[in-house]
Amino acid sequence: MERKSFKVLIADDSLTVHQLFRNALPTETNAVHAFDGVECLAALDHGVDMAFIDVHMPRMSGMDALWAARIAGNKTFVTLMTGRSNARCVELARKLDAYELLIKPFAKDEIRTIANTYLLISSPMRVLLVDDSPIFLKIMRKVLGNSFFHLDISEESRGDLALARCSTEPIDIVFLDINMPGLNGLETLTRLKRNRSDTKVVMMSAEYNPTREREALHLGAAAVMYKPFFPTEIDDVIHRLFGLRSPKLTTDGRIRDFATKIHGRTIAVQHTQSGHMYQYIWFRDPPHLRLPAIRRNDMAESPVLDFESEAKRIALLELKNVGLLSRVD
User: Fold this and answer.
1) CATH 3.90.180.10 fits 6-121, yes or no
2) Residues 283/289, Cβ–Cβ less than 8 Å
């Protein structure tokens, strides 16, 4: 990873914290110090690349300073710091688009990890999507577009075309479907790693198959992901590919009540706690769903119909989010 100079704001009313950052940050860092919320807001307005902001400071809280900056359109890469955390603090940190919430006391390695993450995301990462399904390519582009990382996305529909592109263009990460006609995903992976061993390859599949997953990892895949997946899961994998720890704000918030999978005209919505599955047929005009099947998890204590109305709402919103429905009534 190429090092470059960047400006970092440290906003905290403790001299000890400022000294910790002096010892932890790279020598090429241009540090800006603020000791209260008013100074913090002024520094954000003046412009910094990244910021570490204490939640509790005199004159103006760190939350209020960051809130004011965000309202004004400030997009600074921010990590919040606090001596105590609660659900409300975590919720506000996410709403303010904070990357991480550090709980004091924290170590120098945590600061360095966050600084390294900023260096990684400050330049575009070249990503190639390889899948024979045009619908899934559209969905995947939408998901990657919501990633925390700055991804420059291109796509191919066949393994041989992906190999040709990788031989002529520098690609950082390939998201490669296992099941493809012609040159399948595992064959493509083998040839790709033989020719471009430095390219990181993430295999994708709609079918959970531990034997095939082990084979893919043995052939050089960096990770295996199962469809459908969400931006937070993409971010988690990219962090791991580059040896970075995923932020707790993301990993703690990844658990969701429903998981969705779209296959042609069918969208399946599964309640993750009970295991009940609702399978809908969707119609574009007028936009509506028909429920042909419910797969009940007989081991669950919850009645199957308790979640049906919410599952239908989730299905409609997911279809709208991926662009398959233009509106939801």
Assistant:
1) no
2) yes
